[in-house]
């Protein structure tokens, strides 16, 4: 009963061209069950939704990634979440990255600074050495520049070039090692303002300095010689003068002694006194001369000393031996002069004593004379010649005077003897003092002389040592120079090798180039010739081919024409179908087509694509199919309700009932797209009729193909026939189209 | 195929008629002989005949849609894959 009720409901529903799914029935049940549950449902739904949203918000607050995902995927959720939770927190991972990036640039900057510093340091020595002329030593310079660059890069070389006051020494060294430019290059290299002097400049400077030195030494030696000569002359003069003075003094002293002691005649005495006076005069003049000469000599010696000091101040080594010799000479002269002076002084002192003695004697004589004259005033001085004139009184007075004088003299002698010691002591003291003084003087002079000697010795030794050291240094330098020359030789050899290799490489590459060019040119020529030959040949070929193709084209045209004719015959034979009789079997026509397209695969394939049945039996025409369809339609309508699953006899009864009661349009235009409701058999059949009436067999077949179940079985054979017809017609159409195309293609346009 | 439908109907009706009449006859016989001329064996027999005819008719109409399964016995080697198809003889959906 329930089932019947359901079926009735189905049927009524189908009246409205709907297929109601079974679930709608369940909905009916719900509607009929109770309406109070609706509010419960609504409330439950609202609760669920709000619970879901709240849970999402809480979880988003806790998990930021989830929040981001939600904001990305759900629109307007970011607004809602922002409202509920506030703006999203920043990703903590980002600052770390930024810091890392920031940390990197400083190190990079440092590296760059270092690199630039290195570059500057490299540029400095390179720049310095670049102005140097290209010499064999240049590679050396570069090597040294590299070394210096490394040194400067590692640390600053605080080397300042030697100051100018020691330039002479440095220049002297440079003079001997001007090939070792490294030594000089190292010093000025790190400090850029101090440029390294080029070779010529250095050589020029050195030559200049040498010249100057030579000039100076020449001038110094000349001056020294002059002064030496002059001082020697003066000293000799002085010595001569001193000697003369000495001689004069000695002479004078001797003469004086003689005069004192000798008992000669008065005339001779007066001669003696005259000679003495002459000698005295000589002595004085000689002494004066000697003093003058001494002073001159001293002057000249002083000038010599000053010149020596000056030349010492110049500090040029070549002058030194001269200076030394001059000093020695000076010293000798000074020593001789001193000796002479001492001799003269001793002679003078002796002379002084002798003169003192002579004075004393003269004094005594005068005294005696005075006494005698006082006694005998009339007696004259020369009393020895007056012996006859004197009286006895006078003689007695004289003898008494003489006795008195003898007594006096004896007394004086006794006194003198007593006072002898004291006088001797005093004299000794005096003598000691004088001796001391003389000793001091002598000691001083001797000390000075010794000092001078020692100094001269030292200077000599120093000079010798210097020479020895010079010689040693020269040998060392020579050795260094030898080593340097060896090194330079090695480097030159290496360079030679390198340059040779380079030159050879360049040569070989150039040769290769030339060869390749030559080959290229020949190849080009060949190619051109070949090209010309090819073009000529190709043209010939073209002409031949054109002729051949003409022939071929004509042949093709003939064949195409034949094909077209056969296809036309085939399509004509299709039209021979009559009311309910199929066409003639298409076998012959198809055979004709096949014959006419032996070598044409496409046409052959098409020709063999004709269905077998059409060949054997022929196909039905469209009109017959249309007519048959009308009868089939009613049958299909009748079994419309029968499908694969429901096919009991009761179904059949219902289906018949439906067909009787249901009215549809006999023809309805099918839509461009079928929807599910169009798959109703009745609709399909009306669409199909419409199509058939309008001559669209294909669409009608397609629509009919949509039938299912028993209706489908019923129209199956019609469908097969329709298919066959369609297939055959399609093939024939294709063939004719193809034949037309081929025919058009082969037609020679005038 | 369209004719098949008509032919089926012809067969069906003929068969049903024959069976009904035959049933009726058998009923008559039984009613007369066994059941003391009651009416019920007549209706029973005719009903039986009608039912049989109906059933046959239905079967005939369903026959294109019946799926015939078969049991395929495999060799002892392939014990894992038992290629047994479920035999779905009839699909009793409605009726």
From TrEMBL, chain B:
| The keyword Chloroplast belongs to this UniProt entry's keyword annotation | no
Swiss-Prot/TrEMBL keywords: Membrane, Mitochondrion, Mitochondrion inner membrane, Transmembrane, Transmembrane helix
GO-annotated cellular components: MICOS complex
Q: Which residue ranges run through the membrane?
A: 17-35
One Pfam match, by short name?
DUF543
Concerning its family, UniProt says: Belongs to the MICOS complex subunit Mic10 family.
Q: Please give the function described in this protein's UniProt entry.
A: Component of the MICOS complex, a large protein complex of the mitochondrial inner membrane that plays crucial roles in the maintenance of crista junctions, inner membrane architecture, and formation of contact sites to the outer membrane.
Q: What is this protein called?
A: MICOS complex subunit MIC10
The gene name on file is MICOS10-NBL1
